[in-house]
Amino acid sequence: AALPGPAPADWAQAPLDPAVRAVLVGFDEHFSYAKLCQALRYLMRGGPDCLLVGTNRDHRLPLEGGAAIPGTGCLVKAVETAAQREAFIVGKPNRFMFDCVASEFGVDPSRTIMVGDRLDTDILMGNDCRLTTLLTLTGVSTLDEVRGHQDSDCPARTRLVPDYYVDSIADLLQVLGE
């Protein structure tokens, strides 16, 4: 939606839905200043009773050939900055999502593997949930980063070390087929 008028005072006059009790920030290719204004107005109107929820903090999304685009974390940060409060993140690396799935479907962490291409989300969540972790080297994280974390004495960095790695998910599928 466009801003309702040319001046900031006009922007504060757009109608708000009285049923809204949470602002959810996820990937949105149409994120705009108007949406940021509306999010802030809902959060200010509801105060602490209006939840601020983010899907993830990914700072960028990798594309083929080494290119990248801004990730959802950039949008979450914009709303957090405007609202002057931190979002509750429901996606990786927060274990909330895993705990919901595990309780609903009786997942046994000792028989579960977390496969992902990011150390700071996929591998961190897998390790925090006591899952076996497998890093695919087709995304954001590199083997040099893994080695740097592995050689560190910092407990926070060692939580980013996967149990295994493969160059590509295709390598894993080949092994599973055998």
TrEMBL record:
Asked whether the keyword Cell membrane is assigned, the reply is: yes
Q: What keywords are assigned to this protein?
A: Cell membrane, Cytoplasm, Membrane
Task: Extract one GO molecular function annotation from the record.
Answer: sn-glycerol 3-phosphatase activity
Pfam families found in the cross-reference section: Hydrolase_like
Q: Give the species this sequence originates from.
A: Daphoenositta chrysoptera (varied sittella)
Where on the tree of life does the source sit, at the highest rank? Eukaryota
What is this protein called in UniProt?
PGP phosphatase
Q: How does it sit in the membrane?
A: Peripheral membrane protein
Question: Does the entry feature the keyword Cytoplasm, yes or no?
Answer: yes
Gene Ontology CC annotation, any one: cytosol
Question: Where does this protein reside within or beyond the cell?
Answer: Cell membrane; Cytoplasm, Cytosol
Q: Chief subcellular site?
A: membrane
